Amino acid sequence: MSFYLMSRGLGCMGLFSGAYQSLKVLARAEKGVEVSTLAHVLEYWVVLGAITLFETTLEVLISWFPFYYFFKCITLVLLLLPEAKVREMINIAHVLFHSVIEPTMQHVRALAHERLAPLCEDLMLKHGRWLHARLLAQSLHLLPDDELVALRQQLQDKIKEIEVEIHARKKR
Protein backbone atom coordinates (compact mmCIF):
# COMPACT_ATOMS: atom_id res chain seq x y z
CA MET A 1 0.00 0.00 0.00
CA SER A 2 2.84 2.37 0.77
CA PHE A 3 4.37 1.96 -2.70
CA TYR A 4 0.93 2.56 -4.20
CA LEU A 5 0.60 5.86 -2.34
CA MET A 6 4.19 6.75 -3.14
CA SER A 7 3.58 6.06 -6.85
CA ARG A 8 0.54 8.36 -6.79
CA GLY A 9 2.56 11.10 -5.12
CA LEU A 10 5.44 10.66 -7.54
CA GLY A 11 2.97 10.81 -10.43
CA CYS A 12 1.71 14.17 -9.18
CA MET A 13 5.28 15.38 -8.69
CA GLY A 14 6.01 14.27 -12.25
CA LEU A 15 3.20 16.43 -13.57
CA PHE A 16 4.36 19.44 -11.59
CA SER A 17 8.00 18.89 -12.56
CA GLY A 18 7.13 18.61 -16.26
CA ALA A 19 4.96 21.70 -16.09
CA TYR A 20 7.75 23.62 -14.35
CA GLN A 21 10.34 22.50 -16.93
CA SER A 22 7.99 23.52 -19.73
CA LEU A 23 7.43 26.94 -18.15
CA LYS A 24 11.19 27.43 -17.85
CA VAL A 25 11.64 26.57 -21.53
CA LEU A 26 8.82 28.91 -22.54
CA ALA A 27 10.30 31.72 -20.43
CA ARG A 28 13.62 31.31 -22.24
CA ALA A 29 11.99 31.05 -25.67
CA GLU A 30 12.75 34.68 -26.54
CA LYS A 31 16.45 34.19 -25.79
CA GLY A 32 16.55 31.03 -27.84
CA VAL A 33 16.36 27.54 -26.45
CA GLU A 34 18.68 24.71 -27.37
CA VAL A 35 17.14 21.88 -29.33
CA SER A 36 18.48 19.36 -26.81
CA THR A 37 16.57 21.11 -24.02
CA LEU A 38 13.36 21.03 -26.05
CA ALA A 39 13.94 17.37 -26.92
CA HIS A 40 14.52 16.55 -23.24
CA VAL A 41 11.27 18.24 -22.16
CA LEU A 42 9.27 16.63 -24.97
CA GLU A 43 10.71 13.17 -24.24
CA TYR A 44 9.83 13.70 -20.58
CA TRP A 45 6.20 14.52 -21.43
CA VAL A 46 5.89 11.63 -23.87
CA VAL A 47 7.23 9.14 -21.32
CA LEU A 48 5.05 10.54 -18.54
CA GLY A 49 2.04 10.43 -20.86
CA ALA A 50 2.82 6.82 -21.81
CA ILE A 51 3.11 5.87 -18.14
CA THR A 52 -0.20 7.59 -17.41
CA LEU A 53 -1.89 5.88 -20.38
CA PHE A 54 -0.49 2.52 -19.32
CA GLU A 55 -1.58 3.16 -15.75
CA THR A 56 -5.09 4.17 -16.78
CA THR A 57 -5.69 1.18 -19.03
CA LEU A 58 -3.74 -1.76 -17.63
CA GLU A 59 -2.83 -1.01 -14.03
CA VAL A 60 -5.89 -2.84 -12.70
CA LEU A 61 -4.56 -6.05 -14.23
CA ILE A 62 -0.83 -5.61 -13.81
CA SER A 63 -0.83 -4.15 -10.29
CA TRP A 64 -1.36 -7.65 -8.91
CA PHE A 65 2.15 -8.65 -9.96
CA PRO A 66 4.66 -8.56 -7.12
CA PHE A 67 6.80 -5.42 -6.90
CA TYR A 68 4.85 -3.58 -9.61
CA TYR A 69 4.48 -0.42 -7.53
CA PHE A 70 8.10 -0.69 -6.38
CA PHE A 71 9.38 -0.71 -9.97
CA LYS A 72 6.92 2.01 -10.91
CA CYS A 73 8.26 4.18 -8.09
CA ILE A 74 11.84 3.55 -9.18
CA THR A 75 10.95 4.53 -12.75
CA LEU A 76 9.24 7.73 -11.59
CA VAL A 77 12.14 8.64 -9.27
CA LEU A 78 14.59 8.15 -12.14
CA LEU A 79 12.34 10.29 -14.31
CA LEU A 80 12.28 13.04 -11.67
CA LEU A 81 16.02 13.11 -10.98
CA PRO A 82 17.32 16.67 -11.15
CA GLU A 83 19.53 17.71 -14.01
CA ALA A 84 22.83 16.62 -12.56
CA LYS A 85 25.64 14.26 -13.42
CA VAL A 86 23.45 11.34 -12.37
CA ARG A 87 20.87 12.44 -14.93
CA GLU A 88 23.49 12.38 -17.68
CA MET A 89 24.36 8.78 -16.77
CA ILE A 90 20.74 7.62 -16.42
CA ASN A 91 18.37 9.65 -18.59
CA ILE A 92 15.41 7.34 -18.21
CA ALA A 93 13.12 9.51 -20.34
CA HIS A 94 15.54 9.30 -23.28
CA VAL A 95 16.09 5.56 -22.81
CA LEU A 96 12.39 4.72 -22.51
CA PHE A 97 11.46 6.98 -25.40
CA HIS A 98 13.97 5.53 -27.86
CA SER A 99 13.88 1.90 -26.74
CA VAL A 100 10.19 1.36 -25.95
CA ILE A 101 7.84 4.15 -26.99
CA GLU A 102 9.27 5.05 -30.41
CA PRO A 103 9.43 1.44 -31.72
CA THR A 104 5.95 0.75 -30.32
CA MET A 105 4.53 3.82 -32.04
CA GLN A 106 6.18 2.86 -35.34
CA HIS A 107 4.60 -0.59 -35.07
CA VAL A 108 1.18 0.88 -34.22
CA ARG A 109 1.45 3.37 -37.10
CA ALA A 110 2.30 0.56 -39.53
CA LEU A 111 -0.64 -1.51 -38.28
CA ALA A 112 -2.97 1.47 -38.61
CA HIS A 113 -1.87 2.13 -42.18
CA GLU A 114 -2.07 -1.55 -43.07
CA ARG A 115 -5.38 -2.50 -41.45
CA LEU A 116 -7.24 0.56 -40.23
CA ALA A 117 -6.89 2.82 -43.28
CA PRO A 118 -8.54 0.35 -45.72
CA LEU A 119 -11.34 -0.29 -43.22
CA CYS A 120 -11.99 3.45 -42.85
CA GLU A 121 -11.94 3.92 -46.62
CA ASP A 122 -14.50 1.12 -47.06
CA LEU A 123 -16.75 2.60 -44.39
CA MET A 124 -16.50 6.05 -45.96
CA LEU A 125 -17.40 4.66 -49.37
CA LYS A 126 -20.37 2.69 -48.04
CA HIS A 127 -21.79 5.26 -45.70
CA GLY A 128 -20.53 8.36 -47.47
CA ARG A 129 -22.75 7.74 -50.48
CA TRP A 130 -25.76 7.16 -48.23
CA LEU A 131 -25.04 10.29 -46.19
CA HIS A 132 -24.48 12.36 -49.34
CA ALA A 133 -27.80 11.20 -50.81
CA ARG A 134 -29.69 11.96 -47.58
CA LEU A 135 -28.13 15.41 -47.20
CA LEU A 136 -28.80 16.25 -50.83
CA ALA A 137 -32.43 15.11 -50.54
CA GLN A 138 -32.94 17.19 -47.40
CA SER A 139 -31.25 20.32 -48.70
CA LEU A 140 -32.73 20.50 -52.23
CA HIS A 141 -35.94 22.17 -51.13
CA LEU A 142 -33.94 24.69 -49.04
CA LEU A 143 -31.71 25.91 -51.89
CA PRO A 144 -32.57 29.09 -53.82
CA ASP A 145 -33.15 28.79 -57.58
CA ASP A 146 -29.73 30.09 -58.66
CA GLU A 147 -27.94 27.56 -56.42
CA LEU A 148 -30.12 24.76 -57.78
CA VAL A 149 -29.10 25.72 -61.33
CA ALA A 150 -25.43 25.77 -60.27
CA LEU A 151 -25.82 22.37 -58.59
CA ARG A 152 -27.44 20.94 -61.73
CA GLN A 153 -24.49 22.17 -63.81
CA GLN A 154 -22.00 20.63 -61.38
CA LEU A 155 -23.83 17.32 -61.49
CA GLN A 156 -23.94 17.35 -65.31
CA ASP A 157 -20.19 18.04 -65.40
CA LYS A 158 -19.61 15.18 -62.95
CA ILE A 159 -21.75 12.84 -65.11
CA LYS A 160 -19.61 13.74 -68.15
CA GLU A 161 -16.44 12.93 -66.16
CA ILE A 162 -17.91 9.57 -65.16
CA GLU A 163 -18.86 8.77 -68.77
CA VAL A 164 -15.32 9.61 -69.92
CA GLU A 165 -13.89 7.32 -67.22
CA ILE A 166 -16.25 4.47 -68.19
CA HIS A 167 -15.33 4.90 -71.85
CA ALA A 168 -11.61 4.89 -70.99
CA ARG A 169 -11.98 1.70 -68.93
CA LYS A 170 -13.78 -0.07 -71.78
CA LYS A 171 -10.81 0.65 -74.08
CA ARG A 172 -8.36 -1.00 -71.67
Automatic annotation (TrEMBL):
Its main location: membrane. It is found in: Membrane. The keyword RNA-binding does not apply. It is a multi-pass membrane protein. GO terms for cellular component: membrane. Pfam families: TB2_DP1_HVA22 (PF03134). The chain crosses the membrane at residues 60-81. Residues 145-172 form a coiled coil. This is Uncharacterized protein. Belongs to the DP1 family. Keywords: Coiled coil, Membrane, Transmembrane, Transmembrane helix. It comes from the Eukaryota. It comes from Lagenidium giganteum. The keyword Coiled coil applies.
